[in-house]
Design goal:
Layout (H helix, E strand, L loop, with lengths): L1 E6 L8 H14 L3 E4 L16 H10 L5 E8 L5 H14 L4 E6 L4 H4 L9 H19 L4 E4 L4 E5 L13 E7 L2 H8 L3 E6 L10 H15 L6 E6 L6 H11 L3 E4 L11 H9 L6
Parallel strand pairs: 1-2, 1-10, 2-3, 3-4, 4-7, 7-8, 8-9, 9-10
Antiparallel strand pairs: 5-6
Helix pairs in contact: 1-2, 1-9, 2-3, 3-5, 6-7
């Protein structure tokens, strides 16, 4: 099992210099990854300063040599695939092949889309997401791409450089269980980041619910071999092993250390730094 630190892109973490320093500390303390939120605005956090996630991850890449770096999650449907492909490829090249792209519809949908005059129809957004993912994978190959779809058109375009990681940067798909469509989407890619309506961001999910998710995704894929399962929540250094151990036994491959979404420490550097400096869970 590997261990990552999860931070929002606002508050104390809106500053790339802060994120670069945190990434360096995390690497030195033995963590394996750093993942940041990808939001333009975010409901009850709207009064905070926000940073661009790709600038934050660039600072992290320049400050580290080993950490896996990425977003959890990027709303692909509000991006142009060609622009996102270029951003992710640049991070992958800069970091020497350490980028991961976490994706989903994003939310809150009314904030991320509706406040900018975009559709809030989840079916429409899901269509954009799926078509966009196919284009990302094609663009990262470094080969010419032509595409004519419902949402996007590409006329013989080659985007260079290709990503260091081939055939693509790993794509992890987030979504709320027990909704099946995002789990089926995840099964087509490289990992799943399940969220749970009754156990919000920062709450540790029950093992029995995790087993339900893995059974369903495994059924869709045929096998979970080589597939990442990313779970997260808040732990203390004293409790981390006891919390994470059963989830690892159930099949999780990453533990993503997170603060409570509505807690006072969600965007607090000092609180996150204390947990990071204590090191990842010991199983």
């Amino acid at each position: 099992m590997r261990f990552s630190v999860n931070i929002p892109c606002f508050g104390d973490f809106a500053d790339p210099r802060t994120v670069g320093g945190l990434a360096r500390t995390a690497e030195e303390a033995g963590w394996d990854g750093l993942f940041v939120w990808d939001h333009l605005v975010h409901g009850f956090h709207a009064d905070r300063p926000f940073g661009d996630p790709w600038m934050l991850l660039t600072a992290a890449a320049l400050s580290t040599s080993r950490l896996r770096l990425g977003t959890l999650v990027t709303p692909v449907a509000r991006r142009r695939p060609q622009g996102l492909a270029r951003q992710v490829a640049t991070l992958d090249v800069l970091s020497g092949g350490r980028a991961t792209l976490g994706v989903g519809l994003g939310g809150p949908i009314d904030d991320e889309y509706g406040r900018f005059g975009d559709t809030t129809d989840p079916v429409e957004l899901a269509g954009r997401l799926d078509e966009g993912l196919s284009l990302l994978s094609a663009f990262w190959s470094g080969a010419p791409v032509s595409h004519s779809g419902r949402h996007f058109t590409v006329d013989d375009v080659t985007l260079l450089p290709a990503t260091v990681q081939q055939p693509r940067v790993p794509i992890w798909v987030g979504g709320f269980w027990p909704s099946r469509p995002p789990m089926r989407r995840a099964a087509r890619w490289d990992g799943v980041v399940p969220l749970f309506g009754e156990h919000r961001h920062g709450d540790v999910p029950p093992v029995e619910v995790v087993r339900e998710v893995l059974a369903y995704v495994g059924e869709q894929r045929g096998s979970l071999d080589g597939f990442d399962v990313v779970l997260g929540g808040v732990t203390t250094p004293a409790s981390a092993g006891d919390v994470v151990g059963p989830l690892a036994e159930a099949g999780a491959t990453w533990w993503d250390e997170r603060q409570l979404q509505r807690g006072p420490d969600i965007d607090s550097l000092s609180a996150v730094l204390r947990r990071v400096e204590a090191g990842p869970p010991t199983l």
